Amino acid sequence: MHPFDTVIVGAGTAGSLLAKRLSHERQHRVLLIEAGQRDDYAWIHIPVGYLYCIGNPRTDWLYQTEPSAGLNGRQLLYPRGKTLGGCSSINGMIYMRGQARDYDHWAELLGDEAWRWDQVLPAFMAHEDHWLGDAGQSPDAEFARYHGHGGEWRVEKQRLRWDILDAFARAAEQAGIPATADFNRGDNEGVGYFQVNQKDGWRWNTAKAFLRPACYGRPNFEMWTGAQVAKLLVEREADGRLRCHGVCVKVNDELVEVQAGQVLLCAGAINSPQLLQLSGIGPGALLQRHGLPVLADLPGVGSNLQDHLQIRAVYKIRNAPTLNVLASSMLGKARIGLEYLFKRSGPMSMAPSQLGAFTRSSPDRPWPNIQYHVQPLSLDAFGQPLHAFPAFTASVCNLNPTSRGTVQITSADWHQAPAIQPNYLSTAEDRQVAADSLRVTRRIAAQPALAPYAPEEWKPGAQHESDADLVRLAGDIATTIFHPVGTTRMGGDGDPMAVLTPRFEVRDGRGGTIAGLRVVDAGAMPTITSGNTNSPTLMMAERAAGWLRQAARR
User: Fold this and answer.
1) Which of 186, 190, 301, 491 is most enclosed, with most CB atoms within 10 A?
2) For FAD, which residues are the binding ones (predicted)?
């Protein structure tokens, strides 16, 4: 008998939900393994604390990309959560599902109707706790059709507003983008304030939502933190089928083997393909180059990397406060701190981006294909000082990039970080969307609603107008918005690059699957969703949990 029925690798977004769902059955023994520490670091829970978590070895894997031609040879920091809650402990807290068409497209790619929007919507709602369902609120007639209440995943409205953001929203409307109060009903076109995963002014991560207090008191649940999995234990059985029967994990400076009936790999779109490759599952030539046995030649492991690249246009303004000004003095910082201390509101309660908009980069686009994250501040990069002048940033990203990157091990040594090459702006379509999206930004900034604030384009600079110039400058100022997906993607039986079945089972490269092994995280997405990716990852984990529990009852 195995010590555990299920071992879950990674206590992040998907792993935390799966741990709660699967340990609900008291006879089912679950071990949750997390390479990072517990989420008892204060800055995790104060919303603005992402500034102190990103780039911090206490909470971040500290990855960086390879030099990218589309970014004019630049490398980017590539934050990934390394703590309980994973990226939900360091991300922007924005609650976003994407568009209905995203999931209908998945269903077509996978040949599986279970992934259509009307099929995945109940999984979003199953764990949702939307503020409009609270006593005393007034949800509209459509609320119950699209939103849940009483689940673990808290969704609230933000606890601040800014004059300059209100003006940007009005300007967006004048530019033809309709106002919306809800981005999460299948068509997210519009402009409005984001809803966030917070509770009473505190970050609400998946460790709070799913692990405590429920899991901690269960006798059939065990959790190891500060424990990094070195590889999966995969062997070929007498009948020729591959089976994963556990993991090799470093605990207290010792490598130990843990046996399990099944392993759920939830380490994220970077670490999951890395672990598969280290375990002999991946592109055969890559594994052989690093002296690893090829148990399953799967060329798709580590390919198909997709990410949202944000182009951070900065506008200097007049006649309105921004965070650049409010946080420029000790007195200003003290006022901000006191407001949060006594009210849990103000700049310390804010997500990295407060106002959002979804629209088309050009009129011929059939659906909204760009997203704005608008901020009442400006800086050169996260972690850098705020600029000395009042300004706002209108970051715009291509929701459906056609560029594809890779994640590949650089050594058979599991301590070594993988090589991450997103290949941003490597297709003509992506370069055109980049240029067009900057023009949309300029059109919004030129509307009457913003005229009282005299917006002046500081980056990339209004003197640049040609496609070539805008693409080059986009490469200078663009950065990741932290949404890597697709590196272990699901696919149909006839898809040679598919890593997973539509039920998250790992393929064996010979027409079958590897018994006892599934990957459930953002890497499983066939194509990136049209918006922030945290909540879609939770939805996938909810679906996986349901299928696993059904199978266990048979």
Assistant:
1) 301
2) 229
